[in-house]
Design goal:
The protein is of the alpha+beta class. The chain has helices at 2-19, 26-40, 44-51, 58-64, 73-78, 83-95, 97-107, 111-122, 133-143, 148-165, 187-193, 209-222, 294-300, 306-329; strands at residues 131-132, 173-174, 232-234, 236-237, 254-255, 264-265, 275-283, 286-292. It has a domain at 26-66 and 129-222: Helicase, Ruva Protein, domain 3 (Orthogonal Bundle), CATH 1.10.8. The protein is built from 14 helices and eight strands. The strands form three sheets. It has a four-stranded antiparallel beta sheet with strand order 3-8-7-5. Strands 1-2 form a two-stranded antiparallel ribbon. It has a two-stranded antiparallel sheet with strand order 4-6. Residues 1-20 have low confidence and may be disordered.
């Protein structure tokens, strides 16, 4: 009898937990709605109706707890430096070469960088995400304390965006972190940097590669991309003093002419006043040491990971090399 009762209670508790597994915290939702009504004059009843259809996503919470950026460089690199991604990049470049050339001319961001960003983010628009953006952002805003303020702001931006664009908030799918479309812009980035690059009267980064190209170029330009400047260079190490300037801040802070005192040779082709960031990357055979310049830092504004920025840089380099070889053959 006791055993049967115990089994029943366990089963009941599991059933109760399962029934609430996809339910968002109602107090947090109520506070959020009150703010949206007071600040942006939203209709409270409509927002309550909207949130009644939004679900907490355990998949999102699991995914954000194990991002690819936690992998060592030699594993992370293989996710993006693949022959088919390089080949698809060439195809994308050829298909949208007019838009890419115009983006370069207007914003100073070269085609191979834009192509690489879109290649890393969504395989040139093929994989734009399978999570409902409302579910992802609400889950992270109300059930991910580590970055709840950030995602609460993005949820706010998303609702403003969908109201401005006349879009059903429940209709858009994206990444587990709420990034959307071909270039994977988070809502705040969409509202600040997405542009109508083909002049058809609407901004569409979900289905329009031309708008996506222009939006990526505008994003980089706004963050200070320097036209024609280097991105990263290998470092020549003479001693282990370089560890003194290793840190987690991706922003360049060491002048090129100060490298010597840290056991690093100053690259001849880098101006002495240039600011650099020392990068240490794990390989299967040890480590690689690189120097990142301002444009490398700008790439980290898209994703705050030096692994991400290096993957974009190296993919762009491979795509450019293949593109130039192909052009040379047909001359």
């Amino acid at each position: 009898m006791y055993k049967s009762l115990k089994i029943f209670l366990i089963s009941y508790l599991l059933l109760i937990n399962a029934s609430h597994a996809d339910v968002l915290d109602q107090n947090s939702i109520n506070q959020f709605i009150e703010n949206m009504v007071a600040t942006y004059q939203y209709d409270a009843d409509k927002l309550h109706s909207l949130f009644s259809q939004v679900k907490l996503s355990q998949r999102v919470l699991e995914a954000i707890s194990r991002p690819a950026e936690k992998l060592p460089w030699y594993e992370y690199r293989t996710l993006f430096l693949q022959p088919d991604r390089i080949e698809q990049g060439l195809i994308f470049w050829e298909r949208y070469q007019t838009a890419l050339k115009r983006a370069d001319q207007l914003y100073g961001v070269p085609a191979h960088i834009i192509v690489a960003i879109i290649g890393v983010e969504t395989r040139y628009g093929q994989s734009t995400g399978k999570d409902r953006v409302m579910d992802a952002l609400a889950t992270l805003a109300f059930h991910y304390p580590e970055r709840s303020d950030f995602f609460r702001n993005e949820l706010e931006e998303y609702l403003l965006l969908t109201r401005e664009q006349g879009i059903d908030p429940l209709s858009i799918k994206g990444s587990y972190a709420g990034a959307m479309g071909i270039p994977q812009f988070i809502p705040s980035s969409y509202r600040r940097y997405a542009i109508d690059f083909d002049d058809d009267g609407k901004i569409d980064i979900w289905n329009n590669p031309v708008d996506a190209i222009g939006s990526v170029a505008n994003y980089f330009n706004q963050y200070g991309w320097e036209m024609g400047e280097m991105i990263a260079v290998p470092a020549e190490i003479q001693s282990n003093q370089y560890v003194e300037i290793l840190n987690d801040d991706p922003e360049p802070h060491i002048r090129a002419d100060e490298l010597k005192k840290y056991g690093i040779n100053q690259p001849e082709y880098v101006p002495p006043e240039a600011l650099l960031k020392l990068l240490r990357l794990d390989t299967s055979e040890g480590e690689e040491i690189w120097l990142g310049l301002n444009n490398f830092y700008v790439i980290t504004r898209y994703n705050h990971s030096v692994l991400y920025a290096m993957a974009v840089y190296q993919l762009s380099d491979e795509i450019l090399r293949r593109y130039e070889n192909k052009v040379a053959i047909f001359k």
